[in-house]
Design brief:
The structure holds two protein chains of two kinds. Chain A is an all-alpha fold. Chain A has a single domain, classed as Alpha Horseshoe (Serine Threonine Protein Phosphatase 5, Tetratricopeptide repeat). Helices cover 67% and strands 2% of the residues of chain A. Chain A has a two-stranded antiparallel ribbon with strand order 1-2. Chain A is globular. The relative contact order of chain A is 0.17. In chain B, the strands form three sheets. In chain B, strands 1-2-4-3-5-6 form a six-stranded mixed β-sheet, with helices on both faces. Chain B has a six-stranded mixed β-sheet with strand order 9-8-7-12-10-11. Chain B folds into two domains: 175 residues, Dihydroxyacetone kinase, domain 1 (Rossmann fold, 3-Layer(aba) Sandwich); 128 residues, Dihydroxyacetone kinase, domain 2 (Hypothetical Protein Tm841, Chain: A,domain 3), CATH 3.30.1180. Chain B is globular. In chain B, helix 2 packs across helix 3 and helix 6 packs across helix 7. In chain B, a hairpin with a 4-residue loop joins strand 13 and strand 14. By secondary structure, chain B is α/β, with parallel strands linked by helices. The chains are: A mainly alpha, B alpha/beta. Chain B: GO terms for molecular function: phosphoenolpyruvate-glycerone phosphotransferase activity. Chain B: This is Dihydroxyacetone kinase subunit DhaK. Chain B: It comes from Muricoprocola aceti. Chain B: InterPro entries: DhaK_dom (IPR004006), Dihydroxyacetone_Kinase (IPR050861).
Amino acid sequence: MVVKNAKGRPILLNMVQAIHENKQYLGDIDGLIGDGDHGMNMNKGFVTYGERLGEDETTFTDGLNDLGMVLLNEIGGSMGPIYGTIFMDMADSAEEEEDITLEVFAKMLEAGLEGLYGIVDARPGDKTLVDTLNPCVECMKKAAAEGKDFAQALDEMKDCAETGKESTKDMVAKYGRSSRLGERSRGVLDAGATSCCIMLKAMADGMKSVLE
Amino acid sequence: MQRILNNPDNIVDEMLEGFVKTHGDIVKKTSHPRVLAAVNAPVEGKVGVVTGGGSGHKPAFIGYVGKNMCDSAAVGEICSSPTAAAFLDAFKAADGGKGVACLYGNYSGDNMNVKMAVKMAKKEGLTVKTVVANDDVASAPKDQREKRRGVAGEILMWKCGGAKASLGGDLDEVIAAAQKAIDSTRSVGIGLTPCTLPAVGHPNFEIKDGTMEVGIGHHGEPGIEVCELETADKMAKRMTDIVLPDYPFESGDEVVVLVSGLGATPVMELYVLYNEIEKLIVEKGIRIHKAYVGNYFTSLDMMGATLTVMKLDDELKELIDLDCNTMGLTQV
């Protein structure tokens, strides 16, 4: 099974909608140990991209690249460069592909994580979105190596994203603004890990809807 | 929430419009909607001095763009770093052919966006060097100074870096002067009330009535201690006890003292605080060369104040004393 790269529109729109629907939730989570603007900024970036796309079709990789550019060039903060880099590096690694196979997708996710590692010092266990993204990368690489069914692998990735996000609850933040809180950051989900989980699950659902 | 607003999502753009209408003799718009530049920028043959940061800290950051301070500033959303693209365009707006000094504060978003912008500038043949302010004593222990945040000490860094550039310093000299300025500077804040992001509508942290938070950050980052609200003399003692030994500032030193309100504290109370701070500093045999008291670097509607002390040498003294004309700081 493959996702035709040409059929990017429903995947991207699913991601936009998921972030939009969770604007308030993300803001509330961020407010507990951050400054409460995460939902607002993410929503602004994703919705801006959605409006620019309008009724147009897009490939999956062009869509990720355009979304990344909007976040990087128009949103700023920490999330602009972080998600901008993830999406643009994911897109870069597969822009020539007509068919996104499980193997290609695993490489895309890995490229996104590597790009992220190039600009942040956070690593697994630091209570950041790395704790959501990294297990998803590992899960997809394993699934690709085992030649798993694409749809089943996407379901597993959703579970990994959820587990990864939940794991941040018991962690003490070591990177970014909430790290200044030390022990006081324990017991609360990380906002970036949460938005990353929402985004990856929406991406997986969008991909499943166009698997052929 | 009792605030003066239209749509809170547009507050930054509307503030910028109003700012340029008011201070059109000092700053101008640029091709990037989130970059303001000094009216005469770029100055041919002068090192460009650039800063930038999230909004909500007026007069910082655009309030320090103007004669003999910064040539341009990148503007972010409230409490959120400007984009890499905005920093890049700010570099270009300031570039007079001698390179650009980007002087900003130590926050993760700003660090990432500046890093990306510097890389993009390099590709376009523009040399940018940076100094990252880390004057906030309360934000990390002394042996981890590289983790400390930048707060009101940034103003003195812009003052010295900007003056050095205006006096003809080359890029390395401007960077060295700005670095020396921030290395000679220590700050601490005390918060009395939390602040509210207009688009969020309620405070996202709490300072209980009758208490104060010592060491609070400009975005409500938790301080080192929450204690009962004290009188001005005790507050001054607490602040000087944190700031003075950290550098340390000692008898015989000559310093600049800057007391800034955090946004909602009446300015008269800042003078009450400075009156106490001055006594404690002079008691220690430290000479105050110049003092600044007012709302220089704020945190939306937070109540409280920051104390910043900078040790002077002959070079920093000359740079501090140079005249300047910005919205936030005018000196003749």
